[in-house]
Structures are given as C-alpha cells and as structure tokens.
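Sorry to interrupt, but I need a hand with the structure work. Could you write out one complete protein record for me, on any chain you like? Just paste the record in under my message, thanks.

. . .
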Amino acid sequence: MKFLTLLILALAALAPVTLRAAAEKTTAKNCGCDCCKGKAICCCNTEAAASASPAAANPSAPTAAPEIKRYALRGVVVAVDADKSALRVKHEEIPGFMRAMTMQFKVDAPTLTAAKVGAALTGQMSRQGKDWVLEAVKFLP
C-alpha cells in the first residue's frame, strides 16, 4: 500500500512537467520542413536562431555571412503582388526539404513583370532573412 501511494505521488509530481512539455510542443512555431522536424522551435525562424547564436551575445564579434541554401522549385503562379514585389506560387514537393504547398516569394522586377497567374515556372528558392526568395526563374511554355 505504501508503495502504491509513493507511486501515485511521484506520477502526480511529473504530470505538470509532461503537460507543460506537451503544450509547448503544440504551440511552438514550426514550419514542418525536414530541418525543423523534432525541434520545439522552427530553425527557419531567423529571430530565434539569431538570439541563440554566440554572435547575438557579442555583437561586436565579426561574423561570417551564412551560406544561403538554394532548392530547385517547380510550381504555378497563383497570385502576383506588385506592391510587395512577390509571387504566390503553388509548388511541388521539394524532396528531403519541404512538402508541396503554396508560398509567397520575393522576386526581382523582371520576374514580377513577366509573371502571369496560371504560369508554370521553375526556379531556385532560398530563405534570406525573414523572406523566402525565388531566383533564376524560368517560365515554362
């Protein structure tokens, strides 16, 4: 009987920790890409990454510019937003990185001018600061 009482008290003491961890997991911002799987906070969130870096602790320390990772993208233009210099693109899955979805991408002026809703395209997507950027865009016939 004493053992059962101790067991119940131990489990009751752990319950708030378990519930808090579950709540943090469900409310954490995570984009769902492969690099973020299993993490409480999205690694694509540049604000969180910057605050956790040693450079954030010592702003006067010189830092090397991070290498920009680019991924081949194939998709269709869903909307053109000239005010934001952006295209909303429904893209295919990027194997090993991101599931198929619709996203907004910053683009250069010539790409923005040439873009039409419904146009198929290919390009290179990357995360630059807080923005997703689409470069080397080629519109398909």
User: Anything to note?
Assistant: The chain has two domains: 2-57, 70-139.
